[in-house]
Amino acid sequence: MQIAYRSRNVSIGSGQRERMEERLTHVARFLDGMQKAEISLYEEKNPRIAEREVCEVSMHDGHGHVIRAKGSGFEVMEAFDRVVEKLEHRLEKLKGKLICRSQPHHRAETGKANGSVAKRGPVKTKTFKIESMTPAEAILHMELLSHSFYFFTNEDTGSPAVVYERSDGTVGLIDSEVSV
Q1: Which residue has the higher pLDDT, 35 or 115?
Q2: Structural domains of the chain ordered from first start
Q3: Are the C-beta atoms of residues 64 and 29 closer than 8 Å to each other?
Q4: How many Å apart are CA 141 and CA 150, to the nearest integer?
Q5: Based on the number of CB atoms within 10 Å of its own CB, is 56 exposed (0-12), middle (13-18) or buried (19 or more)?
Q6: Any idea what the Cα angle at residue 99 is, between residues 97 and 100, rounded to 5°?
Q7: How many other β-carbons are positioned within 10 Å of the β-carbon of residue 10?
């Protein structure tokens, strides 16, 4: 597995790199086909944040699945250990979904069609008219409705788009490209 490191205001020693690589290769065994991992390490500069060391890991497999986790701690390795725990849980969950999808007899044995749907209940469906507006107007509507995202037709491009609140407090825009 290829492992790429990115760090900002954080230095990592060779011993820490070896431990990170060892832990990630162990985690990658949960699901076959893990090809690439990206580790981002940085330090929060906000003095109000106690756990300043932040670690983000993205793992990619050959089938198009991307598993991401983010953790923070007082030290780099503490943040990394928290991320590894989250990755293990998410990889086990993905593996379970893939097994249920590919092996229908497995579903009959367990009595569940899909573990996540059984826990959450039926899927709620909502239908509404998509309005054409600019991204600035969509942000305003999103804030007025107190939602974390807003789906609309981008007036500039004429294609469906979404504005959403990012974890860092900024607003993101996902604009689709309609293929003909």
Answers
A1: 35
A2: 2-120 (3.30.160.100), 132-175 (3.30.505.50)
A3: no
A4: 7
A5: middle
A6: 65
A7: 17
Confidence at residue 60, expressed as pLDDT on a 0 to 100 scale: 86
Position 26 scores a pLDDT of 87
Q: How far is CA 155 from CA 46, 135, 160, in A?
A: 38, 8, 9
From CA 42, how far away is CA 10, in angstroms rounded? 6
Phi, psi of 83 (to 5 degrees): -65, -40
At 63, the pLDDT band (50, 70, 90 cuts) reads confident
- Prediction pTM value: 0.58
Better pLDDT: 115 or 146: 146
Helix ranges, 29-134 (H): 76-102, 104-110, 115-120
Residue range 78-101, pLDDT digits in tens? 999 999 999 998 888 888 877 776
Residue pair 152/130 in contact by the 8 Å Cβ criterion: yes
Q: Which of 77, 86, 85 is nearest to 10 (CA)?
A: 77
**Among 65, 70, 66, residue whose Cα is nearest residue 83:** 70
